[in-house]
UniProtKB/TrEMBL annotation:
Protein name as it appears in the record: Uncharacterized protein
Organism of this sequence: Micromonospora auratinigra
């Protein structure tokens, strides 16, 4: 029997499952460019999770934070709190990608909005 080694890190599979589960939820409600962006973010996050499975704790922490930002961004649970957009998740993910020196994983940098300053 051949056993396939997936992420090979202690939280790798858990993080990938979180991304996949959230993406499945988003697929039910998003269409067009928003869905495309969500798919790109998920692909990037999966790649980062696997790529940093054996990296430093700091690098894994950056990726874990980006995953949680993507996964926990959508619902305010009835409170009158602003809901983070996919564009905000894109900025966070792209910042982590740059910090990790992986510009090949940038999520559609042409679409990345400029940060707004109040």
């Amino acid at each position: 029997m051949i056993v396939e080694e997936r992420g090979s890190g202690p939280g790798t599979d858990v993080l990938i499952r979180k991304v996949d589960s959230h993406l499945a939820t988003l697929r039910a409600g998003l269409h067009g460019p928003e869905l495309e962006l969500a798919e790109q973010l998920a692909r990037c996050l999966r790649e980062l999770v696997v790529a940093t499975a054996h990296s430093s704790a700091a690098d894994r922490g950056l990726v874990r934070a980006a995953v949680h930002y993507f996964v926990l961004r959508r619902e305010s649970r009835g409170q009158h709190l602003p809901v983070r957009s996919l564009a905000a998740a894109q900025r966070v993910v792209n910042k982590v990608v740059r910090q990790l020196g992986r510009p090949d994983l940038l999520v559609d940098p042409r679409r990345e909005p400029e940060p707004t300053h109040p």
